[in-house]
Specification:
single chain; 283 residues; alpha/beta; 2 domains; two-stranded antiparallel ribbon; 12 helices
Amino acid sequence: MHTKYVYCIATLLTLCFAQFCAAQNPLFPEAPGVVSYTYRNQLAKDLPGTLDTIKSLGIVDMEFSNLFGKTASEIRALLDERGMYCSSFGVSYDDLRNRLNEVTSNAKTLGASYVRVAWLPSRQPFTLELAQKTAEEFNEIGKRLRLEFGLTFCYHNHGYEFVPYQDGTLFDALVAQTNPQDVSFELDVLWAFFPGADPAAIIERHGDRIKLLHLKDLRKGVKGDLTGKTAVENDVALGTGQLDIPAIVRAAKKAGVKHFYIEDESPSIATQVPESIAFLKSL
């Protein structure tokens, strides 16, 4: 038999075996969670109906970052009725610092285990001095959340933290200067990739410091920077953009990430969220 035909047959058999193994050992067999911001417009208009839509996709794990004019008790009741739950509660940094009792009361009523902050007002551009100041504040807040309220504090990166510093970035410095027992992280993979970092490598480097993950993808051809801002239309379905989602998921699974949330800020969530779920199931 001609050598090239032998090679083709061997290649085909290898691909078939790989697909068989993937089918028998899926990388992401569970349903992902979703961030409420993905459905912000729909939740603001019809919270119960939108929860029904989310549940119909097989999603039961929610991260709320807005109460949408409801009380935490009202949202909890709607979640309980549907067999859904809130694992993480996102708040502003100002609220966390100045209204801690209200924040923690809402988090515990919702059933959340994590309290998350996703933006630091007036700290851009990020500097070493700001990173050190932020680490001190995070340590104090995280300790109070843990000891007084039994909650875990998580910081969600937003891109501006990845200023080069020593052999890494100021994000690495922020992780290094915060106490592991009091401060954890929610890695937004797009906002790690956008300023030029490798999300999978970040997860591998920091291991179990990263408890939560925002899964999202960036439109091909879009160039990143340190602003922490890009058009919402640049969020695309997982697997169709620039990020290596399989490598990220593999690293996150190995690191023991607790919750994976789809976040899609685009106006195309009706088609893109189902596409993202299907992509995760195909891994």
